Automatic annotation (TrEMBL):
This is Signal transduction histidine kinase internal region domain-containing protein. InterPro entries: Bact_2-comp_sensor_kinase, HATPase_C_sf, Sig_transdc_His_kin_internal. It comes from Mucilaginibacter agri. Keywords: Membrane, Transmembrane, Transmembrane helix. The chain crosses the membrane at residues 12-30, 42-61, 73-95, 115-138. Residues 152-227 form the Signal transduction histidine kinase internal region domain. It comes from the Bacteria. Pfam families: His_kinase.
Amino acid sequence: MKMIKREPTVRQLVMLVWAAVFVVIFFTFLPEEGFTLSLTYAVINTIFYAFIIYGNISFLYPRFYLKGRLSAYIAASVLLLVLVGASRCFIILTVHNVLSSDAPEEVTTLRLVNYVTACVLIFILSFVFRIALAYFTVKKQSEQILLQKSAAELSLLKSQVQPHFLFNTLNNINYVLYREAPDTAVLIERLADIMRYFVDESPKDRVSIAAEVKFLENYIELERIRIRFQTEIKFGKNYTESDLVPPMLFMTFVENIFKHGIDKSGNNSITISLRQQNGYLQFETINEINRRDKAEGISGFGLSNLDKRLKLLFGNAYYLDTREDANLFFAELKIPIT
């Protein structure tokens, strides 16, 4: 039986690094200080090193430096190093005086300066640590995107039964219907366009916004024929057609409007907006809430899976929000334009 090779996660790699740091510190002190004191020093130093590194890369760097507050970042960093260095000096000397049989050592100005100076090196290494974390995180995200793409392509291949045969057949049916039922012929043409989009465009990493919009419009028009009650659909568009987006990114919103946002007991109003603004593409939908579906516990909307996909594609450079106001459901997605 073939064993499946599992790649370590970023968290596992980080834990391995800290375990290595602990072991190195422990064996550095062991020849002179003995087991108990070396173990204690290793624990204390590892904790303080972690405090410096994570204090910088998780708090000071994103909160001050990335926001352009350089002076505040420098001041906060100096304060961090002084507090950590002084605390480490007092704690280590206290432990030494309690556990060691040697003569007690006092806290002097020179000792404090040495401990604070040693913290500066750890502070500099925190940037290397941050770069390494970013590299492994991006590497994992890239691997996940490739796996999802491969899975989608495999699923698509399994569902394709001679697609070109189907396209040719639809075109022939379309040609016949144009004489007898032109409205039906238009619908079949839209269906063919949707199928062609699935086959030719969806496997790509990026498609033109124009192709994505045409796909949505075809889907909306096909959904209209299933709805037997009054529905008003407005689709506002303002974008550059040549810009690229991931395929089927907006489909989740539109599909779920027709699945869960149509009330069969009355009139319906759907507003869809796609506009380009300040380097971002903003997609919004507004629809009336189907109280019957909500009362029966039909939730769906598939936004959790969409959110995971967006994280893989854009990291944190996107905005996704849904909310209810009175009897309306609002959904908004904003992504950077590539």
